[in-house]
Amino acid sequence: MRSGFALALLLWAGAVVAEPAPELKLLSEHAVEGMRGGNLSGLALCGNEMWTVSDRDDDRIYRLDTSDGKVWQAQALTIDVPEVPDNGLPWGLRSRIWAASFLRGGALDFEGISCDSAGNRYVVSEAYAAVLQVPPTGEASWLKIAPTMIRQARASGMLLHFNALFEGLAVSPAGDQLWLAAERERRGLLLIKRQQTVWDCDDNCVLLSEAGLEMQPAQFPKARPVSRDFADISLFNGKLFTLERNAFQVCRRDPQSARVERCWSFAAEALQDNRRYSQDYGLAEALVVDAEGAWIGLDNNDGPRADGEERPIVWRFAAPDGGWDAAP
């Protein structure tokens, strides 16, 4: 009776209690050394090279030397970042960003990285809801994004709160479509397309905007309902994959409608006793999906986990039985 009452209370509060998703199998884990600011916050596989960013470093991105099977070495590529253009974020949000940069560093708050088939890397600044393009050669530049995107996102309830703006991005191989993930309260997915010199929407930028709560996995200590969120996105084989940090899962979605097709959990592996952190929320921040599996990176905020490991971690999970295209 009590359990039934608790379930009813969660549903009344807007929490989502989903059926358990199949578990992904962990193949390996890799500590990352050499990131000046730590705080690994994005991953991208560009050809055969793995790249990452830190939300504490404004002047560099990192190529990961993965030749050592256990510990990966981050090699910095220094970039000269031009002044961020005004994209329509209100003054109140921008002033809080300016103040926070003095306390924690990382004024731009890089939170995701992706790349196209030409080798261009795209980095999203959560602080300014802007996207920086870093070409293989030449100078970095901010994409010219029509203010329509910010207006539509805010009208849909996204990008309203400090430190809850864009948390991930994915770009098409041709470099002509860009998906952005709004983190939380409300979380959402947006799509913009390159139209000559400006990136804009076909009509409506917003594919998804949703609020509500969902339960943390049963393995999480003192599991409770928390805000639905997105921590990163990855485009693979024509499908969009979302990293849903608080739910400890990866979900496959239709890239044009954002409709969920199937989800897989990584809670069983991530929440083993020796891998637990003291923070009361998920720490997965980075996602790359490929044919063989998924790479998931952790931003541990410089905090140690139960076994004492303090470095950023990247996990390698095997693809599910039947592959990522398997039907529900």
TrEMBL record:
This is DNA topoisomerase IV subunit B. Residues 38-186 form the Phytase-like domain. InterPro entries: Phytase-like_dom (IPR027372). SUPFAM superfamilies: NHL repeat. It comes from Pseudomonas chlororaphis. Pfam families: Phytase-like. Keywords: Isomerase, Signal. Residues 1-18 form the signal peptide. GO terms for molecular function: isomerase activity.
